[in-house]
Target: DUF4442 domain-containing protein
Amino acid sequence: MTDATPAAEPSVGELLAATVPMVRTLNLQYEEVTPERAVLRLPDQPEFANHLGGPHAGAMFTLAESASGAIVLAAFGDQLSRAVPLPVRADIAFKKVARGPVTAVATLGRPAADVLAELDAGRRPEFPITIDITREDGAVTGEMTVLWTLRPNDPPVDGG
Model:
């Protein structure tokens, strides 16, 4: 007798690792992903270090942006047939020197229901995701906000 259990759907982290080359390149680790919060970790990797021996600013930016993208997929992935999620703007501040592995904790800045209500009303909603980047001792080394939008897909063109 064979096991007829269907294969589990891939997690958001597995999906992003399979489709976004930078996620694989930086070996980002998805520790938690929900529609309201995502926690990603960037391991300590000398090949992505800066002149101080900590993670390069570009690697930290990618970590934080990837955490925001994970929330977007978790919260709005079921809307992909009618809207494309796109980052509009990102602002990052580097607060302290980062050394060793760093973790990004991202939080959705608006209720998903409000975003979807705007989309349902035919508008192009925007919503912020805030991210704290911390080192192992808990010190915040960076703060980032990514403003995302759900761009409605063009309606199908009627042949008539």
About this structure: The chain has one domain: 12-152. The chain has a mean pLDDT of 91. The longest strand covers residues 140-152. The first helix runs from residue 12 to 19.
